[in-house]
Structure formats: C-alpha cells, structure tokens
Automatic annotation (TrEMBL):
The keyword Magnesium does not apply. This is Leucine rich repeat containing 18b. Keywords: Leucine-rich repeat, Repeat. SMART domains: LRR_TYP. One of its GO terms (cellular component) is cytoplasm. It holds the Pfam family LRR_8. InterPro entries: Leu-rich_rpt, Leu-rich_rpt_typical-subtyp, LRR_dom_sf, LRR_domain-containing. It comes from the Eukaryota.
Amino acid sequence: MAKGKKKSSESKGRKITLKMAKNALKLTVDGKRRLDLSNMEITTFPKCILKLCDVDELDLSRNMLKKIPDIIDSFVNLRWLDLHSNQLEQLPEAIGRLPKLHSLNLCNNLLTTYGIPYELGLLRNLRSLNLGMNRIETLPPSLAALKELRHLGLFNNLLMGVPQWLHSLPNLQTLNVKSNPICSDEPQKLDPIRRVECLYLVREGCLCSECLQKCKEERGKVDSRISKGLVQRRSILAGLITPNSVAQDDKAVCR
C-alpha cells in the first residue's frame, strides 16, 4: 500500500507553493522581473503563481506540463514566455490575449496544426516564435498577421511545404525549416532569409528512444573527430626537433 501511494504521489509531479514561486523570482539585466520555474518536475500549471501575475517574464520550460489553462491571460505584462520541452498538445485561445508578448518558445512539445489556435495570430507585438521539434504539418494562416515577427523556428516538424504568405512577413529576418519533409521540387525562395540553427539542452529522460539514439550517434561522430585530431597533432609534434636537441648537436660539433 505504501508503495502504491508513493507511485501515485510521483505521478502528480511536484507541487509549487507561493513561497517557492517567490523564491524563484529573478531580476534580469535590463531590470525586468522573471519567474523561473524551469526544470522543476511540474505536471500541472501552478495556480498560486497568479499572485505574481505582474511579472515580465515566465519560464516554465523543461517540465511535464500537458496543458496551459486560460488563466494565462492574467499575465498581461508578459513580454517573454518559455514553454519549451514540455508535453503540450494544444495551446489555449487565451494565449492571444497577451498584448505585450515579444518572445514565445514552444519548442520540443507535442503540438500539431490543430493544437495551434487562431488567436495566436493576435500577438501583434510578437518578434520571436519557436515552434521547432513538434508535430506540425501545416502552418495556421492566422500567423500571417504577425507583422512584427523577426525570428521563426519550424525545424524538426512534419511540414511538406512553406506557405507563400511566409515570404510576405515584412520584418522576418531568420527562418529555420531544417529537418522537415519539404518536397524537393518545390521552388525555394528563402535566400533573403538567413537560416539559423538553435541549440537546446534537455535531459535524456525528456527524449524519445529514437531521438536519444540520434543524439548518441552524433556524439559518437564528434568524439571520433576529436580523437583523430589529437592523434594527428601528436604525430606532428613527435616529428619536430626540440630546441634542446639542436643545442646538444651544436655542442657535439664544437667538441
């Protein structure tokens, strides 16, 4: 019975209290208040943080959240929201009621096209949107209204093509569509847009078996290149004549 209770308690995840949340408040270099609850094994959105809804930045990344409630629109001052590396399948419509939001990170979740609400296009001040490492097959047309968008991450999804309206976003500077099954015969018109890659640190437990295997293979390749470089460097150094050896030869000649 005791073991059963322990297992049930673990499935509920870590409970965040208001005191814990207050201790997690930080001040950014530009004087903004950030509530950092990342990597704390949270499975449900902690309602106690509504007491701190005046923060400028909210970090709930690297947890086990499956749902973001509609009360997210209480954080009216949010300019930065990080939800990467959770288990989100759908976003609430209330996400579009964050008028000051500049950056939204949704990377490494379980989002599909149907999980992205139309209201996301109402974030008219949004400059950075990361939707990489999800299950998105097509982009919702409402995203065409994000005229202030500068950076868009769509890497590692299921996109078969890039919509034409994406090229019409007036301020888009960087676009990452790497690792998508985009048709090769589709004309690419992304030359003016610089493609970039992003790096995210996640726990091995957050990765599926396939992704974990790929990471191990890539790590093995890097280790192999490093070891080869060290061998080559040692062989070069071994062939060099040291200053001491030259001095000894000169001394022998003088004798």
